[in-house]
């Protein structure tokens, strides 16, 4: 069975998002149908939501009910069964929603996932720190990710979401990396800022971004911290922005000077999305933007990924619209050694539309060589996460500290506690 690293997931529930943001996301996806909805309807499975589930099921959104059930499970410390199911079954579902048929025909086994935190609180323009009812503060969200990283050593490696509008963003980020098991950083310009710090008017944003890049460049933690950013038409953005308005912030060209100046190792999540496959009948701009993203990512990969240096990566998260031309292009990309494309899902965003098993199987069945599959599903992700094949020293210390405190059941450095991918591919110093 193919070993799979999912480089792009999210651990979220309804209490991670303010109610307004839940409806904002729905409007982006189902338009006018979301207008009469409230988050409480989803929590209580109201008659209106049951009717909506029936309607959308007929349109091919088959697992919306199960998705809502999973998002209703809040407090991952006391209710980690959704994440347990992901790690043990490979699906972002409640254990009670897993059916025997979901287990059949799997061609891949999830060996590691990388949850990217999302600061929905700041994206909703809430004052911080928040004490809004029904919203888990960001500090607690960070602790919950840390708890899950300790619960599953080597199998959950979280990235901290650095939102530069938070005045204490760098302090929070450093704490997460130094002490809490995080090994990378998520930056999301679609929430309303430019990655080139000098292009922003907000002084807090300017200073936070500049100081973050300098922190990464110094390798203060002993390694080049990997960064994942958003690279497709906006799906999650600041609540006061329309999707089309995020494109100016998201353009890959905004990153060119930053990469050159600070030597960042960066993953462009979503690889421009799949809008490049559309005929452009309804929105030609979406197709053109997708093509622009992909071409710019390819250009950066060709420029920087050579002579043993690997700095520019991309992933296939949220690519549910996959037809023959999609795989033809993906196979052509994987023919080039410089094109460091990684497997990603964007779970649980994809959960309403497809089983994760089927999402994985489609790539296993359509990538045309075992060598390409191994690079796509595992090798490129290991190169992205672990500079020079070395486990970050902060993560080693995190595991030692949590094992000594009794938070990790099995010694993560023992033969039993260390997975094969670590033994075969990585160095621990």
CATH architecture title:
Alpha-Beta Barrel
Q: What string gives the helices and strands in order? A: EHHHHHHEHHEHEHEHHEHEHEHHHH
Proportion of residues in extended strands: 5-15%
Strand order of the largest sheet: 3-4-5-6-7-8
Radius of gyration: 20 Å
Helix content: 40-55%
In total, the number of strands is 8
Q: Give me the oligomer status.
A: single chain
Count of DSSP helices?
18
Shape field:
globular
Q: What is the fourth-level CATH superfamily?
A: Metal-dependent hydrolases
Stated plainly, the CATH topology is called TIM Barrel
In total, how many domains does the architecture comprise? 1
Uncertain regions: pLDDT < 50 for 5+ in a row?
none
Q: What would the average pLDDT be, to the nearest integer?
A: 91
Describe the largest sheet: 6 strands, parallel
CA-CA gap between termini:
30 Å
What structural class do the secondary elements suggest?
Answer: alpha/beta
CATH class: Alpha Beta
Description of the structure:
The structure is a single chain. This protein has about 425 residues and is of the alpha/beta class. The protein has a single domain, classed as TIM Barrel (Alpha-Beta Barrel). Helices cover about 45% and strands about 10% of the residues. The protein contains 18 helices and eight strands. The strands form two sheets. The chain has a six-stranded parallel beta sheet, sandwiched between helices. The two termini are about 30 Å apart. The model has no long low-confidence stretch (mean pLDDT about 90).
